[in-house]
Amino acid sequence: MAITADQGGRHLLVVDDDDRIRDLLKQYLARAGFRVTVAADAAAARRLLSTLDFDLLILDVMMPKEDGFSLARWLRARAGAAGRAPVLILTARGLPDDRIEGLALGADDYLAKPFEPRELLLRVEAILRRAGAPPLVNQISLGHCGFDLARGELTRDERPVRLTEAERRLLRKLASAAHAAVDRRDLAQDGARGSGRAVDIQVTRLRRKVEADPANPRYLHTVRGVGYMLTPD
After folding, report:
1. pTM
2. What CATH class does 11-130 carry?
3. Which end of the chain is more exposed for a tag (fewer CB within 10 A), N or C?
């Protein structure tokens, strides 16, 4: 059974064999408040799609072994909601025939490389609006604290609270998947020097900044055997 991404943080899958572009997209879209998973090729994307549901896919076309058009064709052949997931084709192949082929396969939009990140974000938002996805929540409330996902800024009683870069990434990741447990391994990959122990330390520090009683957290919970979950107001 597929795991559905929490509605508070829309889940995107980026498939691109270029490490630099893949990392850039993940960082930019995560800063905008999305939950982002990446895959380096179509095979990795298929494995992810067999266990997870995504609100939108961003697919490169020119990839080794299986290209993005083939992956889009396979996706559209799937039954149920999984086969209807919105698709944005992102590729250096920007000729009219390429765009027509991508749209004929069922892609929702087509953006040629090189691209402006702001334009990509606007296109993603437009696709999600057309698909009836819930509006993106950029501001969350944690009692006396507030967190702006887009800016990565934490406030307490409207005064800025200093965050380290690792704390900011961790809080953004948890906030974008609010009310859903996030695996410690995923948090380690994105937020805190690549280890589960480092994640635990960052969580302890964050609790001191957002919780009235860090020993009995109201907002930042431990989910045994999984990881952590943020439950904003």
Report:
1. 0.56
2. alpha beta
3. N
